[in-house]
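Bench notes, afternoon.
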Amino acid sequence: MKRIYQLILLLLIGLPSMAQITRPQVNPATPTLKVKGLDLDYFNPREYVIGGTTLTGTKYLDKDVIITLSKLIPGERVVLPGEATANAIKNLWAQGLFDDIQLDIVKLVEDTVYFDIEVVERPRLGSFEFTGVSKSQKTDILEKLSEKPGKAIINDNLYSSTTATVKKFLLGKGYFFTNVEYKTKPDPSQENSVVLEVIVDKGRKVKVHEIVFTGNKDFSSKKLRKFLKKTKQQAFYKVFGSGKFNKEKYDEDKVKLIAKMHDKGYRDAVILKDSIYQYSDKAVGIKIDLFEGPKYYFGNITWAGNAKYTTEYLQRALGIEKGEVFSEEKLEKKLRGSANGDDVSSIYLNDGYLTFNVDPVQTRIYGDTVEMEMRIYEGPQYTNNRITVVGNTITNDRVVLRDIRTKPGEKFSKDLLIRSVREIGQLGNFDESKTNPIPKPNPADGTVDIEYHVEEKPSDQIELSGGFGGGNIIGTLGLTFNNFSLRNLFNLSAYKPLPKGDGQKLSLRGQTNGKFYQSYSFSFSEPWLGGKKPISFGISAFTSLQSNGGRSYYGTIDPSSSQYSKIRLNGVTVSLGRRLNFPDNYFQLVHAINAQQYILNNYGGFLFSTGTSYNFNLTQELSRDSRDSPIFPTGGSFFKFTIQATPPYSLLNNVNYETASDKERYKFTEYHKWKFESQWFQRLAGKFVVKAQAQFGFLGSYNSAVGQSAFERFKLGGDGMQGFDFLQGSELIAMRGYANNSVIPVGANPNIAQQSGSPIFTKYVMELRYPVIASQQATAFLVAFAEGGNTWDKFSDFNPFNVRRSAGFGAKIFLPIFGLLGIDWGYGFDKIPGSPDANKGQFHFSIAQQLGGFN
């Protein structure tokens, strides 16, 4: 009976402390303390030395670590009966590793005690199985989970953290009412492991029914809702819906909301609290409690530390006057964040002051006025030292370095650093988003080393396509090598698969359907002829043939027959160009000599049908290109003015063109041709970019007796691509919303005008662009456009405001290997007389078109 009382008393001492640390577990057991037939005087506790502690029941855990955690370490002293045994169980239970813990006192030898800890290990997490979420969502959730299979123990902490992670992730996706449950099953692939089934009920995505503001006085709730760009309230007039609620975007919007209020002069504005509540099973409501505070204004602005520039000059550059609404955003932009480079920091950084810094300090705030002091550290003026390129695994160093504007020995310039990044991007061999210049100042000698980190991207392009036109199938194969190396042409070790690295361009293109149509072209360009100066050299040649293939409506015909028709074009062009520094260094001037031969045999559509004509002309092209990206410009402009002219043969010879035959009249083509194109790019709100474009072309003659040239005319309408119906000798100008070549002068014969083209055209484009992919592998963007254009036969009829109009939308994608691909749908608003279907809704496909130019 005495032993029973002693056991009851021991349990009363130990178990209360254990009860405080237990919590709901999977199949929980009650930890206990056992005394095996030992005499303990519970009314007179004694101190014992721990002689040893054993651990039983463990298979996967480190026994020494578990004993250490229990603090029943051999050699330590404990008081029995006492708290040491209860604390040992408490410490082990807190680890969440066991389903059951029992502590046994197995032996007492005088003042020495021996313990045994008997445990039942909890199973480990073998793997997760998710139901109720998509494969991609499962992957994202697994990446966010901190508990990894094979290491985690199945316990309450695992359930809690997994539930929190799943709910947080889905909340960011707009699922506000997510429920998570669990099941376990043995993992056959691992001992003492289970598969944890995570059963997710996402519910439905919710919308924001209402956004309620409190505490706002000067700002209306309507105005504040506009500041929340990505969290929109439902409204009947929002045809495409107000969007799903997204917690991450809402958190971003809260920061921007306060930033907007600060920008309006309310520098004390804060969100006191906000809450998201369930409005219905389909919607939530948001309540935001604001503190606006007073509206502040700029007071006196003083400058300290400026020696290079006067206070008056810096104040003009800052452009903030006393009494203006206080805005830290505007202040920061004018000090060092202007997109146009007209901020105060740029003034110094463009003059070599690499370590320049300005610290705006609010020196006094009284009433609604904030006085500022601009504390400047000018630092030394730095000179460029070593300029290096890192990461160019294919392109030679000299090819990159020759286009870099930061030269050794010159003063450091932020503008030239930015310009150098643009020039590297214009090469087309590197990923523009990953070009990173790193200045490394050397304070000891006042120099700076600049490393340009680049990453090569695929730049060669292939065009492989098939099309249908004129009742025939035509195939096209084109290869463009944008980083070619001619000097390594006979160096077999440089072939990868062709010699690369010198920045030259080689293009080969063939198009045929057999004997009806064949076209082959070749071009080569060197941007730095001789390697010393930016003088470009180019040479190109082409030959093309189009015929009825000796076939007519009545069957096969002999090539010598009058029914046999064909046209052959041969041509070669040699060009030289150079960069200009006046009016600025964005200008380029190109001179070209062109020689072309036209051989016609019973071929209609021109001013003569049989004979040979030669076209020798000189072209002068002046262009300026300040676009910030060659693929998807967001700023800058491009314009090109071209004059092309042949010798005035009719004014130099004694031929009477009034009575001359076609063979004599058109043997030497004569004309003067003027073209102009301009493009402007401007970033709008968010990622939207607007493009405005205007084009004009005029083909004139020297002698009215000769008349207009039979060649070099303009054909307007359609996709602007040269396909099987390639009508040689004319420029094809794209205009979406109308059929190919269908925009002809008013009153002209459709059959003749569409084949021969027109001597005058104009075209205007307004395009809104939005990028959806921007990576090294691809650049894709959506477009909405409005266009207007027209053609005329005589300059006296020319009216730049009398245009055929169209509008539509489309998408374009730039793949390094294929170039620019696109699809557009346009609708022409103006009918074309004689072509009733020319202005109906039209789909237009573009393949490997140039990013600039007349198309």
